[in-house]
Q: What sequence folds into this?
């Protein structure tokens, strides 16, 4: 059975939230307001050397998913995102620009999923500390593997290329399912830790992220 979070948003939570990620008051949380694996892979492929905060926000808003620069800053403040690095702008006296790893969009998408599941800030932070970097690493290495295999396939005899490209497409779908399944499993393994946080009195609502 798919994992279900222990904490469900209360009606008062839904009314109180006024952030970008909150569902409408009285409405059930929507899992549709998330990026799909193929979209995440496309975004990461388009920004292999890093992505700016503006581009990250646009990755969501351009697909009809609410997410603002203020929301992004809250994610950074809570330590939920990878660190940025400074990259010099082209041209004289243009200063530098903060660039985040391309996996940052995937990380935000995962946080949104946990918010839909009703997790608190402390629970979300705890899950990231436990497993999220490892799952993201699997996704990144698979993406690199698909890219290399796709490039090598282009050099092959047409008949063999078609056969291998078909098998590669199937392997990609299997890889997407693997990453999704690993995400579900890590949430289940993290559940005992989140239970202990509740017993310790950690009750910061995820709405505080935004």
A:
């Amino acid at each position: 059975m798919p994992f279900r979070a222990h904490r469900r948003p209360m009606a008062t939570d839904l009314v109180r939230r006024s952030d970008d990620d909150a569902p409408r008051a009285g409405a059930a949380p929507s899992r549709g307001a998330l990026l799909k694996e193929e979209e995440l892979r496309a975004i990461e492929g388009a920004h292999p050397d890093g992505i700016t905060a503006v581009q990250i926000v646009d990755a969501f808003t351009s697909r009809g998913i609410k997410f603002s620069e203020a929301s992004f800053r809250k994610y950074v403040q809570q330590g939920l995102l990878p660190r940025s690095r400074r990259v010099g702008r082209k041209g004289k006296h243009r200063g530098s620009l903060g660039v985040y790893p391309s996996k940052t969009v995937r990380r935000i998408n995962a946080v949104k999923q946990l918010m839909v599941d009703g997790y608190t800030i402390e629970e979300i932070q705890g899950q990231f500390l436990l497993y999220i970097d490892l799952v993201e690493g699997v996704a990144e290495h698979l993406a690199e593997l698909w890219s290399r295999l796709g490039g090598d396939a282009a050099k092959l005899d047409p008949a063999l290329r078609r056969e291998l490209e078909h098998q590669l497409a199937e392997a990609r779908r299997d890889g997407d399912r693997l990453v999704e399944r690993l995400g579900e499993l890590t949430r289940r393994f993290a559940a005992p830790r989140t239970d202990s946080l509740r017993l310790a009195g950690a009750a910061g609502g995820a709405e505080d992220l935004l």
